[in-house]
From TrEMBL:
GO annotation, cellular component aspect: plasma membrane
Sequence ranges of Basic residues compositional bias: 1-10
Region span, Disordered: 1-25
InterPro entries xref list: GPCR_Rhodpsn, GPCR_Rhodpsn_7TM, Olfact_rcpt
Transmembrane portions of the chain: 75-99, 147-168, 188-206, 245-274, 286-308, 320-340
Gene3D superfamilies: Rhodopsin 7-helix transmembrane proteins (1.20.1070.10)
UniProt key word Transmembrane: yes
Residue span(s) of domain G-protein coupled receptors family 1 profile: 89-338
Keyword set, alphabetical order: Cell membrane, G-protein coupled receptor, Membrane, Olfaction, Receptor, Sensory transduction, Transducer, Transmembrane, Transmembrane helix
Matches recorded under Pfam families: 7tm_4
Protein name as it appears in the record: G-protein coupled receptors family 1 profile domain-containing protein
Subcellular location: Cell membrane
């Protein structure tokens, strides 16, 4: 009896196995379909999975102006024209200063370096923004984002330091005119220019390393049209509070310290101008500073709004609007202001155009 029962059980089991192998259960089919669907979905995301189940971003997607699809064509035409005017204006200033010997002074050499820096500054961001306006979204690799941020910070810091150096140059010219050629001799100007570049390079390197020191796992959507500090730092896996605080203090050191040095220079300049007895002399002294002061107010005003706020990045729409102003409008302001408000540059421009017209005839 026992043998017959065991035989029946084994026969029943053997009879069930073929049916299960030929006709899988419905639960198995559902789980298999879900796994395939999940694989297809994740294969389209620029991320990879870690062992603990979190997702690491391998590239970013710049959202830019994707929320304004009806204005893309208008914005593209407007930004393209502004970019062309900016590049041509800065190149014109560099050419005039190089050609006209009357402008071979420290002030205008610093202006030529500033124009070159502004041209490279726009090259880092605006072409990428123009390409973004022609697409729904734009992907950028982690290394590409790191490089863009580094060069953007280098050139931005250099502009702050150059404007500070130009303020010091005006201070020496107005407060110590008899010693100007000795204090601002070519070797000193060259050393000051090298110091400006090394300072900007060091600050940008430290900030970029702080931002990219940990992987990113909070999605790859950057709420900006280029890789700026705040929107990229928000995607970091690690707690970014300490790094954000360190970057904030570095920004204060660059922006606020530079601006305070410029204010100190202009405090001495104003005191020296008020001691001039003739009204014509005071106007002439102040006219040499008006263009520089205008560029300083706009440049440092925009930089302060973006980088000197503890809640930087909390309002992406507002940050994008201000970023458009200081990446598109401010570089254009430099050649416009120095061409319209600086008499020496205007005279040199007319002289260069007349000379080139005479040569062509």
């Amino acid at each position: 009896m026992l043998r017959q029962t065991q035989h029946r059980k084994s026969s029943a089991t053997a009879g069930e196995n073929p049916r299960h192998s030929q006709f899988p259960s419905s639960s198995f089919l559902v789980s298999r379909a879900a796994a395939v669907a999940e694989t297809d979905a994740t294969s389209k995301v620029p991320e990879k999975q870690r062992g603990n189940g979190t997702w690491l971003v391998t590239e970013f997607v710049l959202l830019g102006f994707s929320n304004l699809p009806h204005l893309r064509t208008t914005l593209f035409a407007l930004f393209l024209l502004t970019y062309l005017f900016t590049v041509s204006g800065n190149v014109t200033i560099i050419t005039i200063i190089h050609v006209d010997r009357t402008l071979h002074t420290p002030m205008y050499r610093f202006l030529a370096v500033l124009s070159l820096s502004e041209t490279c500054y726009t090259l880092v961001t605006i072409p990428n923004m123009l390409a973004h306006l022609l697409m729904e979204s734009q992907a950028i690799s982690i290394s590409g984002c790191r490089a863009q941020m580094f060069f953007f910070l280098v050139l931005g810091c250099n502009n702050c330091f150059l404007l500070t150096l130009m303020g010091y140059d005006r201070y020496v010219a107005i407060c110590h005119p008899l010693r100007y050629s000795v204090i601002m001799r070519p070797t000193v100007c060259l050393c000051l220019g090298a110091l400006v570049f090394c300072s900007g390079f060091s600050v940008a390197l430290v900030e970029t390393c702080m931002i990219f020191s940990s992987p990113f796992c909070r999605g790859g959507r950057v709420e900006h049209f280029f890789c700026d500090i705040a929107p990229v730092l928000q995607l970091s896996c690690a707690d970014s509070a300490q790094r954000a605080l360190g970057i904030f203090f570095l920004s204060v050191l660059v922006v606020l310290f530079s601006f305070l040095l410029i204010l100190l220079s202009y405090a001495f300049i104003v005191a020296a101008i008020l001691r001039i007895r003739s009204a014509a002399g005071r106007r002439r002294a102040f006219s040499t500073c008006a263009a520089h002061l205008t560029v300083v107010v706009v440049h440092f005003g925009c930089a302060s709004i973006i980088y000197l706020r503890p809640d930087s990045g909390a309002n992406p729409a507002r940050d994008r609007l201000v970023a458009v102003f200081y990446t598109v409008v401010t570089p254009l302001l430099n050649p416009v202001v120095y061409t319209l408000r600086n008499k020496e540059v205007r005279v040199a421009l007319k002289r260069t155009l007349a000379r080139s017209g005479g040569v062509s005839r």
